[in-house]
Amino acid sequence: MAEARAHVVVSGLVQGVYFRYSTREKAKDLGLTGWVRNLPTRQVEAVFEGEEAKVEEMIEWCRRGPAGARVDKVDVSRGPAQDEFLKFEIVY
């Protein structure tokens, strides 16, 4: 199975609605590694690595987000996995 990496920036009402926490839990459920963080621009940024189909599933989840979120836009950059993460975590 091909491994992939996605860098995602999510815009909308995505801070203060458990977006980071929910992203971490979903990524862990999918077996992905990487990180998620809030940006000072009120966006959420994340990097996902793992099985390509699971990374795509995570991107689709980001287009909806958790209950209470309003996602207006998701910018995605894809590439090959770099195997630099051991787990998925919230970073600050």
Protein model, in words:
There is one protein chain. The protein has 92 residues and is of the alpha+beta class. The protein has one domain (3-90): Alpha-Beta Plaits (2-Layer Sandwich). Helix content is 25%, strand content 42%. The chain contains two helices and five strands, in the order E-H-E-E-H-E-E. The protein has helices spanning 19-30, 52-62; strands at 3-13, 33-38, 44-51, 70-80, 88-90. A five-stranded mixed β-sheet has the order 4-1-3-2-5. Strand 2 and strand 3 (44-51) form a beta hairpin. Helix 1 (19-30) packs antiparallel against helix 2. The chain is globular. The termini are far apart. 29% of the residues are buried.
Mean pLDDT: 96
Oligomer: single chain
**What is the name of the CATH topology?**
Alpha-Beta Plaits
Using the 3D structure, state the CATH architecture.
Answer: 2-Layer Sandwich
* Top-tier CATH class: Alpha Beta
From the alpha carbons, calculate the radius of gyration and give it in angstroms: 12 Å
- Model regions low in confidence, pLDDT < 50 over at least 5 residues: none
Shape: globular
Q: Termini, distance in Å?
A: 32 Å
Beta strands, count: 5
Provide a short characterization of the protein structure.
With 92 residues, the chain is of the alpha+beta class. It is built from two helices and five strands, in the order E-H-E-E-H-E-E.
Main traits of this protein?
92 residues; alpha+beta; Alpha-Beta Plaits; 5-stranded mixed sheet; 2 helices; 5 strands; 42% strand
Topology, element by element:
Blueprint lengths: L2 E11 L5 H12 L2 E6 L5 E8 H11 L7 E11 L7 E3 L2
